[in-house]
Amino acid sequence: MHDIDRQICMAAWDGPGAGPGAVAPPVFQTSLFTKPSFAELARQQAAEHEHYVYSRGTNPTVAFLEERLALLEHGESAKCFASGMGAIGATLVALLSAGDHVLFLNNVYGPTLQLAQQLRRFGVEHTIVTEPGADLEEHLRDNTALVYLESPGTQLMKLLDLPAITAVTRQRGIRTVIDNTWSTPLFQKPLDAGVDLVIHSLTKYVGGHSDVNGGAVVGSAEDIRRIFYDGYLLFGATMSAMEASLVLRGLRTLPVRLEQHERNAVQVIDYLCDHPAVTAVHHPYANHSGDDPLFRDQLTGVTGLLSLELRDGTDERVERFIDALKLFRIGISWGGYESLVSSGQRPGKDPAPMPRGLIRLSIGLEGANAQIADLDQAFATLAD
Length: 384
Prior knowledge:
It is a single chain. The protein is globular and about 75 Å long. The model has no long low-confidence stretch (mean pLDDT 93). With 384 residues, the chain is α/β, with parallel strands linked by helices. It has a domain of 129 residues: Aspartate Aminotransferase, domain 1 (Alpha-Beta Complex), CATH 3.90.1150. The longest helix is centred in the last third of the chain and has 33 residues. The protein contains 14 helices and twelve strands. The N and C termini lie far apart (44 Å). The strands form two sheets. Strands 1-7-6-5-4-2-3 form a seven-stranded mixed beta sheet, with helices on both faces. A five-stranded mixed beta sheet has the order 8-9-12-11-10.
């Protein structure tokens, strides 16, 4: 993690209303911004992405967060949304037209694929390839307009070779979009690898406190402007000033929280890899050596979302294990301060069947000793 990223996360507010040395941004809890004349209103409304006219479009508190995220991702511009799916939906609708084809690479977030299925009604086709080593050229079509990927991927956390993928897509004039939520902007910089647009669910690690929903897309100023007018404004998935202030609070502590998530996760993974009741652990730290180029060159750290395969993982044993956990709470999200557990099986949401007995863990901040002790007592119940 670079010191410059820490400074970006913790930058003091220097916008309007800064006051005498304010470090936290004010919450501009207003729905609109009046102007001194009708001509000025008309001028600013014509370029609403650059001016504060109506908070459904732009707001100073939200804009400060967008500036931080763009800097962290090495992008020119960013736009924040009320949720990660708001960012994903607006991006796909803004970039795609009837007759286009989308290639989804790796295990992609289930609701993203559900949205892609809905887009079939509007003439947008898609293909899903879940194997990282697949020949990209073989799956591209003449009408492929977008390659959408995750790395690490959902559930199984497999890595993709981002520079190799973007070398092909750029040569053919195909846009690339990556969901970078798992790594956060601190542990992976996809734009530096040639990816065009980066999407985040800010609900997860960036927000970090399980008390706010948000999403973001980062890329070139031209792409973000297009998404602003053709997706964001028309979808209405607006991030409010209050939500932005909560995400900014999370961003200020993101570096120190990620360091603790990583420390805890590494110790928990070491424990799980040696446990006789576990047949596999899915996480970059568990599945790649330190000198593996995909691990070494693309990631500067690892976060705490992982999955494990339970030996003899019947539905009954998976449920018994999950219900036996006490520190790990049962819930479907991840990336907050708390440790969470859920089943890795999501019928109807995954294009490829998941391994039998798959359980997903989000390693929180409670400490590895406490987390391992809880896992240990839950494994013990399976031996009864």
